[in-house]
Amino acid sequence: MASQDESRQNVGTNGNAKVILYWLDKSRAQRILWLLEELKVDYELKTYKRIDMLAPPELKQIHPLGKSPLLSVQAEGAAEPLVLAESGLITEYLVDHFGPYLAPKQWQKGKENQVQGETEEWVRYRYFMHYAEGTLMPYLVTALLFKALKAKSPFFIRPIVNAIAGNVESLYLNPNLASNFSFLESQVKSAPNGGGYLCGSELTGADILMSFPLGAAKGRSGFTEEKYPALWAYVGRLEEIEGYKRAVQKIIDVEGSYNPSL
Q1: Fewer CB within 10 A of the end CB, N or C, for the chain?
Q2: What is the mean pLDDT for each group of 10 consecutive residues in the chain (262 residues)?
Q3: What pTM does this model have?
Q4: Is-cis flag, bond preceding 69, omega within 30?
């Protein structure tokens, strides 16, 4: 299998495409910003500020749901841009067109296009592309909502709210979060080709997609270095990658600081 450095030499040119990332402060758009930096794609960054914690109505002019991240791509000669929503779709599209080296080789040698002929790296890659938003993020968002509910409920009903929220956390959220962190710990340890990342020895788009929920959960929701040392070290490796650092600096330039949160 060719290394990422070798594969970069074979990427088709999309240099004339106009790429715009619609950035909402304190949002999951951070990892798309990192992906664009990692791919060294020329792009325009349009920033928006939340209003009472919600996205401003201007984003609905870009996409009917008005959520972030949003990405528009307009090929040279195209009449209209293609507007993409959902982090997983955006990541897959950018990797497919601008950086296929960030996806593992799909087929085992001699098993091309056969059922169960995929490489372990590729199966992991596709799995984590869906897992990030489909499994892990709902638990983390729910945990955040219950934390806010306990903190902001009126004082005269706060004991009742705290009791209900505490039961949900202890019976549902905490066990599921622990199961997910334990699973991810084992996945990091068992990654093929010597590991280092979730899908093997090289960075993939799935790692970039996973960086946000894990970075936001770091030190929260029961995710500690003591309990999950391999997973903690993995997040640390992601945060040391130059593309990640460039993205963080751009966020600091826009917002004044960077604190990954849900």
Answers
A1: N
A2: 49 75 86 95 90 84 90 95 96 96 97 96 98 95 85 85 85 94 98 96 98 90 94 97 94 81 62
A3: 0.90
A4: yes
